[in-house]
Amino acid sequence: MKDIASLYSWINQTDLKRPIVIAGPCSAETSEQVMDSAIQLKSHGIQIFRAGIWKPRTRPNSFEGVGEEGLGWLQEVKQKTGMMTTTEVANAKHAELALASGVDILWLGARTTVNPFAVQEIADALKGKDVPVMVKNPMNPDLDLWIGALERLYNVGITKLVAVHRGFSAYHKTKYRNEPQWQIPIELRRRIPNLPIFCDPSHICGTRKYLSEVSQISMDLNYNGLIIESHPNPQEAWSDAEQQLTPKDLSEMLNSLVIRKAKVSNKNLMDTLSELRTMIDLCDNQLLDLIEKRMAFVEQIGQHKKKHNIAVLQNKRWSQILQRIIRKGKAKGLSKEFISTVFKAIHIESINHQTKIMNVETGHALSLLPKKRTLTKGK
Ligand code: PEP
Ligand code: MN
Description:
By secondary structure, the chain is α/β, with parallel strands linked by helices. Helices cover 47% and strands 9% of the residues. The structure holds phosphoenolpyruvate and manganese (II) ion.
């Protein structure tokens, strides 16, 4: 996707020190609510207005959007405030209607990105149209599916593309509505460095409480912009009431963000940074060497177990290791979750090595670690 357009070729923002911000209600509810939100947001310097018209809801019998009628309200916003407008399209008909009524930017929601049929249908409807499209990450943490949706649009000639990170759903309850899994957008940036990435803290958080924290992380990771839900009266919102901010609170939150420089120009700063980075590289090498060493012992044990016909997995020993290591890690300021993720991975790799040794004649190796991992796989 070499020819992805620069954001600034289609978004008119002169203050490059600020992130690009798209804001507006989760859903367009009434013409008054839409206009009121837009006027207030505009007065706080927001240039791009969002509002969902066709709303994908998890359960039936919830508010599913005002539909086509809302397109007229977006047109009015454009005429009265001069803001650019954006809305979600989930099928070819939505895309055609939105384009016909002058919506400036389209977005594909998380529930659409998961479905290659729907994405292709929208892409076909947009063929030859020079419209910017934002593609939210799919609900599930599948980087290829996200990239695939972007590629389908790129292949019909859409070059004004943006990826929107809105988090990934999980069955278990976490502090977030959708887990950020920051490593996935980081890998997306590594694979497609010229693709602008926006963060959608509203749908990651699901609550106002963490919006500022998540927005700040995205700025620290050099995201190009934010898309945030804002409603004149959040508690009364017809959808996503818990996560919306009033335009005034949004503006305060945005003003409190620390925007760091994306590139380092000062030589001394650069030198310090590269020294520290070298130290990190050295530590990573040492970590790898140590893991290699650990694995050599594990293999020796494997030989021993094989000789004496002892089972690979010794549960008691493993829970002792984990408990001890979590205790030690905590004393070093490392969280229990981090330590247990890392050591569980090391343990599974160790079992894989031992199983291979024990079954060398039969070639049976039980692989507990998935071979295909989204994050390590090349294109
Ligand atoms: C939205 O932006 O209102 C929305 C429905 O988003 P998502 O597709 O990220 O759930
Ligand atoms: Mn929403």
